[in-house]
Structure formats: structure tokens, C-alpha cells
Write a structure and sequence with these properties.
globular; C8orf32 fold; about 15% helix; about 270 residues; single chain
């Protein structure tokens, strides 16, 4: 597998999470950049009521990392994570089954239900022209409204409501691409330049044998984004999952900066997540 290139930009990211654990639970976190990046330094501190707790890291899909907090007892959970990434990661690998796996409908990307509209709206377009047309349509027809959507809303709900947040933009773009036989998936990322800062969701599409990234929101330059988790939709990219008990998120702060400078993104060129 190609190795990371340390000669590129330096990116530093951080996450602070506070939550209340009401009943014993396992918690799985997808908050660290892909393991394909070269880390200069990294720190993860987790405590329940001020007492440090165990963390177990396991491999996720597509180079992702899942940090598991096993058997948390009730109490106040506080987590602080930071890492500095040197340079860029190699291009995302293309698996033999990706062309069929990521063209199928999924829980939040109901491409089968949007097929009629998608094929008529983007008739006669192919390749990068089709990708850009779908991205432009989503950006031009969906309003970015914080808090407008529910965690259970998918692409169809966003299409009808005409508003949402980044995950909704990504779900709709993915569904419209899949409906036109383009393999596409959702990626959670750190996005330097995003305002207000938070975790961000973008769309990757398989084109000419390479995974390229588009951001239907247009809220941050793609060139400095850092991949976190990758999958069919938000069900595969959630930053926190609790299993076996009740955990309520009470606070979160995300940071992401790039050095030496934030790039300028025209949004029109084929760009890969590095």
C-alpha cells in the first residue's frame, strides 16, 4: 500500500466531549483521523467522574479507527482528543466490490426512491459533468439550516423538506449519484475552515477508477480535509455510538486548523481526500 507523504501541510485537530452515562454502557467513538495518516503526536484522555477509564482501539473500515470505551459505569464522561497530522495520506484504495457495493440503496440514501427524478433531472450527463451537476443541484436547492433535520431523516426527507445540515446534503448527493449508477459514499471529516467548526460530512464518488470528494455544502476547502470514517451513510460514520445503556451527549467542541495556510477551493476540479 502507498505510504503517507510527510512533505505536505500540517493539520492539527481536537475533540472535547462531555456526556452523562445513566446506565452501564459500551461506547464506540469514531473521532480519530484515518490510520493512513502519519501522526506527529496524538493524545486521548477519557475519564468518568474524574477517574481515567480504559480505551481499546480496533480497526474500522477503509483505514478508520474505532476507540472503544468498554463497560462504562454511570457518571460524567469527559473526553479530550488531539492529534497533529504531517503531510497527506495516499489515495483511497478501490476494492473490487466497490463499484457494486456503493451503488446500492442504503438506510439514509434511498436512491431507489429518487431514481425517477434523478435520471430525468440529469439526463445525458456522464462522468465529472454528472458529478458536478448533482453537487450544484443539491447546493442550489437545499438550504443549510442547523437543527432542521432529525437523526432519522434520510435523502428523501431532505429532498422533500429542502433543508438540512451537512449529513443531509451528503445523503442526498449520494442518493442522486447512485440513482445514476455512480458508486458513492459518505465520509466524516475534520474540515479546517468550516464555520461554525464541527465534524463535517462530505461525499466520495468513484470516478475513472479513483475516489474523488465533493462537498455539496461548499462550506470548507476539500484539499485540507482529514478522513475520519467512511461508509454507506451516516449509520457507518457516527462519531459516538452507545451500546447496552443510556448515554446523553451534553457538550462537544471540535477544532481543526491547517498550516501553512487554508487552501482556496474552486469546487470544480477532481479532488481526492488526502
Amino acid at each position: 500500500m502507498p505510504t503517507a507523504d510527510r512533505s505536505g501541510p500540517t493539520r492539527t485537530v481536537s475533540v472535547h466531549i462531555e456526556a452523562l452515562v445513566h446506565a452501564a454502557a459500551d461506547v464506540a467513538l469514531a473521532i480519530a483521523p484515518s490510520q493512513h495518516y502519519d501522526r506527529v503526536e496524538e493524545s486521548l484522555e477519557v475519564a468518568i467522574d474524574g477517574v481515567a477509564t480504559d480505551v481499546r482501539s480496533i480497526d474500522g473500515d477503509h483505514g478508520g479507527r474505532i476507540d472503544v470505551l468498554p463497560a462504562l459505569e454511570p457518571g460524567r464522561l469527559v473526553l479530550d482528543y488531539t492529534t497533529t497530522i504531517a503531510g497527506t495520506a495516499p489515495p483511497a484504495l478501490v476494492a473490487d466490490a466497490d463499484w457494486v457495493r456503493y451503488v446500492q440503496p442504503s438506510r439514509y440514501c434511498e436512491s431507489d426512491r429518487l431514481g425517477g427524478f434523478a435520471r430525468v433531472q440529469f439526463a445525458d450527463l456522464t462522468g465529472i459533468d454528472l458529478v458536478l451537476a448533482i453537487t450544484d443541484w443539491v447546493r442550489g436547492n437545499i438550504l443549510y439550516v442547523p437543527g432542521a433535520s432529525r437523526p432519522t431523516d434520510g435523502a428523501v426527507a431532505t429532498f422533500l423538506a429542502r433543508e438540512g445540515v451537512c449529513r443531509d446534503f451528503s445523503h442526498l448527493a449520494v442518493a442522486l449519484m447512485r440513482a445514476n449508477d455512480l458508486p458513492a459514499r459518505v465520509v466524516s471529516v475534520f474540515a479546517p475552515g468550516l464555520s461554525p467548526m464541527d465534524f463535517h460530512a462530505v461525499t466520495e464518488v468513484l470516478l475513472d477508477g479513483q475516489w474523488i470528494v465533493v462537498d455539496p455544502t461548499g462550506l470548507a476547502p476539500r484539499q485540507s480535509m482529514l478522513r475520519i470514517a467512511t461508509g454507506h451513510d451516516a449509520a457507518a460514520t457516527a462519531f459516538m455510538t452507545s451500546i447496552g445503556g443510556q448515554v446523553d451527549l451534553t457538550g462537544i467542541a471540535v477544532g481543526a486548523v491547517v498550516n501553512p495556510e487554508l487552501p482556496v477551493d474552486s469546487g470544480r476540479d477532481a479532488c481526492a481526500l488526502h
